[in-house]
Amino acid sequence: MKIFYGVQGTGNGHLSRARAMAGALSQYPDIEIEWLFSGRPREHYFDMELFGDFHCRSGLTFHSEAGRVQPLKTLRNVDLLGLRRDIRALDLSGYDLVISDYEPITARAARRQQLPCVGIGHQYAFCHDVPERGGNPFTRAILQQFAPVTTAVGLHWHHFDKPILPPIVDIDHGDLAGGCEQNKVLVYLPFEDQAPLLALFRQFPDFQFHIYASVHEWRDDDNLHTRPLSRDGFRRDLADSDWVVCNAGFELISEALQLGKRIMAKPLSGQMEQLSNAAALEQLGYASIEERIDRRALEFWFDCEPNAARPCYPNVAEALARWISEGCAEPVEMLCHQLWSESDIAPPQLQRQQVA
Question: What InterPro entries would the database entry show (predicted)?
Answer without folding.
Answer: MJ1255-like (IPR005262)
